[in-house]
Amino acid sequence: MALANIAINLASVGSNFPSSIDKLKNSSIKAQINLRVSRNSLVKTVQSSSVESDTGKWARKRRPQNVDGDFFVDHTCIDCDTCRWMAPQVFTRVGEMSVVYKQPTSSEDRLKALQALLSCPTSSIRTKVPPPDILEAQETFPIPVDEKKLPGVYHCGYHSEKSYGAASYLIIHPGGNILIDSPRFTEKLAKEIETMGGVRYLFLTHKDDVADHAKWATRFSCDRILHSEDVEICTADVEMKLEGNGPWSLGDDIMLVHAPGHTEGTVCLLYKPLKILFTGDHLMMTESGLSIAEMYNKYSVPKQVDSVQKLIQFDFDWIIPGHGRRIQFKDVQEKNTILEAFVREKYKQYSSSYK
Q: Which SMART domains did the record assign (predicted)?
């Protein structure tokens, strides 16, 4: 079977992404998530100031690239991509930031826009008029990822600026629910999760996306899991520290896979019954293609490529990352073919690192 004829079924409805491996390979080198750390620092300064400066007032104004209408994105956007994959009917990217390119015209599109507004880590999405239906939108979280294909798997929303807008997910599990990485703590979300059975484990894929982990651990008296190589001062008291290279198990149906590279202690979670791999920042799909976000690597790019190669042995056909878009492969064979092509390209690119 020719590589160019093997397509990826991407799980973000309404988004346009590479449809073949050839396009995927050609774009993967360029694929990067522009987290705009320097701009993020500016946002923190603006938001923490007791008296809003002229710079702060400008940053909170509507970007001129937005279309006219109620919804808009201001200049504090950190280009985390959250709104663009949550509500692609409304948001797009212009000038390294998000903008509203089409005002929502249906109730479904409006709900998605409000969900993106609530999930924006820097509150950069705004409306001219306070939305009267914002409480209804709040009640939709956590959002089912795919009720038919992935029952019991939810997107928590409320992305945190502390983790540069990373997504958090909840697995409803008979052995105790699992929260994957930390969303921004809000009591409204906590109450909704409580009605769903609370949280038994808070699994932290790596040290970047821990956000409000301590507040969630206190709220639910849950055990936090993090690899010892990624433990820092703010996570020194996590209840379960993984040691060595694994893999480790949480019961019979969940495997924790060590995937060093982005950080030394990055670990992916494989949920076997639904064949989902939660990858954190290890592997993701951006608007440009499959990516390991080399420019944000904190440990070793060659080791990260080796860790992608390692994933080929595991049985999954979904990738759900912390940053970027979800991927649904047609089957495991397609997953393996695509990952093998991606790894070959990366080995070629970084061959000097292996000499």
A: Lactamase_B
Domains and CATH numbers, the chain: 58-132 (3.30.70.20), 140-351 (3.60.15.10)
Measure CA 7 to chain center.
22
Q: What is the SS3 string spanning the chain?
A: CCHHHCCCEECCCCCCCCCCHHHHHHHHCCCCCCCCHHHHHHHHHHHHCCCCCHHHHHHCCECCCCCCCCEEEECCCCCCCHHHHHCCCCEEEECCEEEECCCCCCHHHHHHHHHHHHHCCCCCEEECCCCCCHHHHHCCCCEEEECCCEEEEEECCCCCHHHCCCCCEEECCCCCCEEECCCCCCHHHHHHHHHCCCCCEEECCCHHHCCCHHHHHHHHCCEEEEEHHHCCHHHCCCCEEECCCCCEECCCCEEEEECCCCCCCCEEEEEHHHCEEEEECCCEECCCCEECCHHHCCCCHHHHHHHHHHHCCCCCCEEEECCCECEECCCHHHHHHHHHHHHHHHHHHCHHHHC
CB 70 within 8 A of CB 129: yes
Percent of the chain with pLDDT over 70: 83
With a CB cutoff of 8 Å and minimum separation 6, the contacts of 130 are none
Going by C-alpha positions, the residue among 83, 65, 82 that lies closest to residue 74 is: 65
The predicted model scores a pTM of 0.84
Residue 313's CB is within 10 A of a number of other CB atoms, namely 8
pLDDT digits (tens, 9 = 90+) for 313-332: 999 999 999 998 999 999 99
Query: What's the token pair of residue 189?
Result: 């979300």
CA atoms in the 13 A half-sphere facing the CB of 197: 13
Q: 239-292 pLDDT, tens per residue?
A: 999 999 999 999 899 999 999 999 999 999 999 999 999 999 999 998 888 999
